[in-house]
Amino acid sequence: MTTDPPRPVPDRDGGVSLSREEAVATSPGKRKREDDLTAPTKPTAKRKKSKRKVEDDGDLDLEAGINKAFALMDGRLLADQLGQRLRRFEPDLSMVELNDQYISGRVIKDTTAWQKPRGLDNLPDFLEQYSPKGKLSISAKEKGCPHTIVVAGAGLRAADLTRALRRFQTKEAMVAKLFAKHIKLKEAEQFVKSTRLERLVVDASHIDVKKRGILDMRETCLPLLKLLNRPALQERLAATEKPIDLLFY
Q: What's the pLDDT at 248?
């Protein structure tokens, strides 16, 4: 007399529990193929992330120290970049707080028509392109009233920018650092409030040896956003008469 083998009992998840002998008899190759079919999507996401990283690196000219992607961004795209950086570096901010610090793309001047590489040598020509002819070498009679401010992410870079812009320096017009450590914040604010200020230029394309630009580091991006969100500057950026031009180089 023969007896039927015991039927597998479904477990609580609806699957079937295997005996030890059945588990050993299962083909390892088959298990691997089945595991591949049910593998989580995280490795795939990681591969996609790595692929995006390689594509992003294609915009970086390491020899020249330039991120070429910024040359292709209009005001709307640059505003999106600033918003993404703010969310990354301040993840605990609420939606209301994020909106309060959002920089509108309408106040960012479109410079995508500029075709030359955005290196030090071409910065003077870039400023002339987006400034009234012959005005960059003319300063206000009142001291402490610059018509142009270029914001850099590091002291050495600021020194390089100062040397690159010396061609505009005359006996009446000085090219120098502004937001240095030895200048008090209140004095810097007075510069921003000055009606003589005509343009604010962010040195966005420059990257260091670690492929980082002013928007890629928390310690430089957040102070920049804080500057751009100052009420006095916001008022001038949105003004209908004699607004300040906000440019990303």
A: 98
